[in-house]
């Protein structure tokens, strides 16, 4: 029953340490049940992310559900921007001890007015772990699966490092940088970044960024402002002097054991030469020297993107789980939840 449930907005800029601790407790309890095998998200990391959301999230709003003084649920919506400003990216988590009492639905209902105010057309959830309560809940509420995402993880200590000894294909050479693309290659780097558009997005409403030089500079600045260290390895086509492919990985000094593998793409004209594997292998060798405290790297890839998943496997990544992205029009969610169930 949702009797006694009080749902209120949570403002990280005004929150106390104790407020974050109770949010963290819900996240951890959910993680144990829904995402076993992943190291727990440290409290300090949760606080930092809530106070300063990751680049690409847009503005983020949070809600807490309390009952009898206990925090029993947590919800967040990322109001994605630019190409994706019609999407409200939503995550609802209920403490496992309080599930099947209508709290998840009540949390979703509570955040709908803000989605409407922020002019969102669709509600998407990307963090639904396949086969868990989250998937059954989403289906029961009329969400449809639009994309399956494979989450892979690389544990450096477990990998045979010989798999990172990869020759550079003839006709190419590698270039790497931290933080800011050299002026001499930034034009063709922006073009190469556009190759990510060939990566499948299923039926999600999400759109990849339209890359341009100003966009590259803007995104680099956002990562810097967040304290993230962005490393990029590109394969340069020697004949034309242009970027044929690249890989991008971020680390953060507050969590030196973790890396976030971001985009990797090769322009269509240069595919099939092994460049994806080559730039990723070089990135790993660079990280070994540059980030000795690094232990794990996480990445997510569309499940149908067999090439990228295979390259990752060759680098030593193992599949951790499948996530199902689900979607529903905001109007449909509003109609479905118009009448309280209990
Ligand atoms: C998904 C989640 C938020 C649901 O919270 P909840 O409070 O247990 O859900 P509700 O009580 O509101 O469930 C509403 C309906 O969803 C369906 N449902 C929810 N959990 C279910 C389960 N484990 N098995 C089958 N149906 C389920 C049922 O139809 C349920 O209605 P009923 O209990 O009257 O049969 C919770 O399981 C959770 O935190 N999971 C981890 C995070 C996640 O996956 N979030 C969803 C994506 S944003």
Descriptive tags:
342 residues; alpha+beta; Aminopeptidase; 2 domains; 9 helices; 32% helix; 31% strand; binds coenzyme A; Bact_Acetyltransf; transferase; GNAT_dom; Acyl_CoA_acyltransferase
Write the layout of secondary structure elements.
Elements lengths: L4 E6 L6 H18 L8 H9 L7 E9 L2 E10 L7 E8 L8 H15 L4 E8 L3 H8 L3 E12 L16 E7 L4 H11 L19 H14 L2 E9 L4 E10 L6 E9 L8 H16 L5 E7 L3 H10 L2 E12 H7 L6
Parallel strand pairs: 4-5, 10-11
Antiparallel strand pairs: 1-2, 2-3, 3-4, 5-12, 6-11, 6-12, 7-8, 8-9, 9-10
Helix pairs in contact: 7-8
Bound molecules: coenzyme A (COA).
Coenzyme A (COA) binds next to helix 1, strand 4, helix 3, strand 5 and helix 4.
Q: Gap between N and C termini, in Å? A: 7 Å
**Strand share of the residues?**
25-35%
Element order: H for helix, E for strand: EHHEEEHEHEEHHEEEHEHEH
Helical fraction: 25-40%
CATH homologous superfamily classification of the largest domain? Gcn5-related N-acetyltransferase (GNAT)
Structural class given helices, strands, pairing? alpha+beta
The CATH class assignment of the largest domain is Alpha Beta
Give the neighbour order of strands across the main sheet. Answer: 1-2-3-4-5-12-6-11-10-9-8-7
Q: Give the domain tally.
A: 2
- Would you identify the CATH architecture of the largest domain? 3-Layer(aba) Sandwich
CATH fold-type name of the largest domain? Aminopeptidase
Please give the number of β-strands. Answer: 12
Helix count, DSSP H or I runs of 4 or more residues: 9
Quick one: biggest sheet? 12 strands, mixed
What general form does the structure show? globular
Bound molecules: coenzyme A
Protein name: GNAT superfamily N-acetyltransferase
Keywords: Acyltransferase, Transferase
Pfam families: Acetyltransf_1
InterPro entries: Acyl_CoA_acyltransferase, Bact_Acetyltransf, GNAT_dom
């Amino acid at each position: 029953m949702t009797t006694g449930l009080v749902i209120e907005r949570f403002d990280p800029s005004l929150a106390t340490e104790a407020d974050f601790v109770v949010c963290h407790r819900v996240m951890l309890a959910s993680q144990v049940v829904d995402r076993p095998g992943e190291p727990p998200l440290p409290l300090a990391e949760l606080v930092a992310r809530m106070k300063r959301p990751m680049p690409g999230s847009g503005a983020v709003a949070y809600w807490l559900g309390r009952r009898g003084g206990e925090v029993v649920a947590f919800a967040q919506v990322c109001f994605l921007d630019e190409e994706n400003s019609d999407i409200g990216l939503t995550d609802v988590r209920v403490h496992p001890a309080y599930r099947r009492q209508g709290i998840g639905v009540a949390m979703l209902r509570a955040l709908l007015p803000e989605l409407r105010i922020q002019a969102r057309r669709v509600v998407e959830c990307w963090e639904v772990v396949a086969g868990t309560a989250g998937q059954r809940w989403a289906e029961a509420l009329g969400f449809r699966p639009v994309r399956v995402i494979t989450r892979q993880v690389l544990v450096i200590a477990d990998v045979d490092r010989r798999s990172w000894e990869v020759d550079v294909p003839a006709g190419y050479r590698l270039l790497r940088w931290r933080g800011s693309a050299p002026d001499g290659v930034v034009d063709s780097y922006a073009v190469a970044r556009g190759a990510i558009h060939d990566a499948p997005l299923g039926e999600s409403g999400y759109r990849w960024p339209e890359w341009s030089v100003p966009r590259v500079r803007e995104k680099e600045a956002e990562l810097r402002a967040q304290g993230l260290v962005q490393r990029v390895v590109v394969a340069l086509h020697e004949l034309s002097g242009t970027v044929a492919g690249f890989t991008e990985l971020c680390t953060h000094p507050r969590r030196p054991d973790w890396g976030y593998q971001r985009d990797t793409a090769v322009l269509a004209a240069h595919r099939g030469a092994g460049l994806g594997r080559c730039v990723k292998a070089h990135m790993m060798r660079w990280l070994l020297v540059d980030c000795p405290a690094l232990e794990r790297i996480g990445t997510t890839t569309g499940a149908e993107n067999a090439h990228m998943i295979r390259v990752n496997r060759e680098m030593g990544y193992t599949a951790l789980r499948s996530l199902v992205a689900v979607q529903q029009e905001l109007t449909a969610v509003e109609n479905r939840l118009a009448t309280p169930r209990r």
